[in-house]
């Protein structure tokens, strides 16, 4: 090999070596760039979720009164820190920046009564108007899993109205229409669909409601329950849009889960059974819908009960019933949108409150013979 050829080979060798080094450098730079993008996206995404959560009420279903003192001359920062310390807001900094964004001012000192279900706007409005601490004249506690007729009874035991008067307002078309116009994202035309027993069934949020008048009107007693449901359901609207389901469908599914669940029940698994049956076009066959159709409350559903002729009877009709059969809480709301991934098609509750899930009718009948006395 000539000296010229040797130099040429050496040049090519060095050139290839530099090209390989450049490739390695490019790969390293690309890898670092990708890692930085992932980290940066994670920080941005995590920050967004944190701020979104901080903007929401601490506990939407908790209306227990919390007394808070705002001293004279308190700055926005001081007020924010006091509210965070009393667990009325999640993050003082987020609240402080929200106040600046809203250009809110003129906060008044005093003794306030707040609760963990209050939104930022409600807190700010109270601080600006000086809505100070006062004792409630009475309060009404609506538990989860209650139906319209039960709610009317609960209200009548605490307020100066009869069950009949309260139920008349709950079914009054002009009142319902007024609420529908005021809370359009919650109350849609679905509540007036064919075969609906009570338009507002499932639309009164379970919580404790204080009232500061000795005798508020029945409408003033009921509207806070609708308003609170509207606020809570509003947090789920993006998920409902993503799943392409209506608020009415959502509340109906949640009510079935609420009525079937025991304290020990895994609601996500109950939800999965309903989803699996809907997908296979199987009747849901859930006993609470039969009891709702019968208008009765009892521990056991008899075989003859399953024959009740009603659109709410999910033993005779495919799909969800026409509407909710009770009110539901957030645990059931979450389960209605996030069923566990299972192959279960059946479940039954034992006397001890345990819920047994099975995949086939044969397995279900075996468990039923073990735990349920034949009717």
Automatic annotation (TrEMBL):
Membrane topology per record: Single-pass membrane protein
Catalytic activity: a peptidoglycan chain = a peptidoglycan chain with N-acetyl-1,6-anhydromuramyl-[peptide] at the reducing end + a peptidoglycan chain with N-acetylglucosamine at the non-reducing end
Short name of one Pfam family: YceG
Entry keywords, A to Z: Cell membrane, Cell wall biogenesis/degradation, Lyase, Membrane, Transmembrane, Transmembrane helix
CDD domains: MltG_like
Primary location group: membrane
TM segment ranges: 28-51
Top-rank taxon, per record: Bacteria
Protein family per UniProt: Belongs to the transglycosylase MltG family.
Known role: Functions as a peptidoglycan terminase that cleaves nascent peptidoglycan strands endolytically to terminate their elongation.
Record protein name field: Endolytic murein transglycosylase
Organism: Metabacillus niabensis
Organism placement in taxonomy: Bacteria, Bacillati, Bacillota, Bacilli, Bacillales
């Amino acid at each position: 090999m000539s000296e010229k050829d040797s130099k040429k080979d050496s040049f090519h060798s060095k050139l290839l070596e530099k090209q390989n080094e450049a490739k390695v450098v490019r790969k390293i730079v690309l890898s670092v760039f990708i890692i930085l993008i992932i980290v940066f996206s994670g920080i941005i995404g995590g920050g967004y979720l944190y701020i979104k959560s901080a903007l929401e009420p601490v506990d939407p279903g908790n209306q227990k009164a919390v007394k808070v003192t705002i001293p004279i001359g308190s700055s926005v920062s001081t007020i924010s820190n006091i509210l965070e310390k009393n667990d009325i807001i999640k993050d003082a900094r987020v609240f402080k920046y929200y106040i600046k964004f809203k250009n809110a001012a003129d906060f008044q000192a005093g003794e306030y009564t707040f609760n963990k279900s209050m939104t930022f706007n409600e807190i700010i409005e109270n601080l600006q108007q000086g809505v100070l601490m006062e004792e409630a004249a009475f309060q009404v506690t609506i538990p989860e899993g209650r139906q319209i007729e039960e709610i009317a009874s609960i209200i009548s035991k605490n307020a100066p109205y009869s069950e009949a008067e309260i139920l008349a307002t709950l079914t009054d078309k002009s009142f319902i229409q007024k609420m529908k116009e005021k809370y359009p994202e919650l109350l849609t035309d679905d509540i007036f669909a064919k075969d609906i027993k009570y338009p507002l069934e499932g639309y009164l949020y379970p919580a404790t409601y204080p009232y500061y008048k000795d005798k508020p009107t029945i409408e003033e007693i009921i509207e806070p329950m609708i308003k609170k449901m509207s606020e809570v359901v509003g947090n789920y609207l993006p998920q409902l849009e993503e799943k392409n389901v209506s608020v009415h469908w959502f509340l109906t599914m949640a009510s079935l889960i609420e009525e079937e669940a025991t304290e020990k029940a895994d609601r996500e698994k109950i939800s999965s059974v309903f989803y699996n049956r809907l997908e296979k076009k199987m009747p849901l066959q859930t006993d609470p819908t039969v009891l709702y159709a019968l208008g009765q409350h009892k521990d056991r559903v008899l075989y003859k009960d399953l024959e009740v002729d009603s659109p709410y009877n999910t033993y005779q009709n495919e799909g969800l019933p026409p509407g909710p059969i009770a009110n539901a809480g957030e645990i059931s709301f979450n389960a209605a949108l996030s069923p566990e991934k299972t192959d279960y098609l059946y479940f039954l509750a034992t006397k001890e409150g345990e819920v047994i899930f099975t995949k086939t009718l044969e397995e279900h009948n075996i468990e039923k013979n073990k735990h349920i006395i034949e009717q």
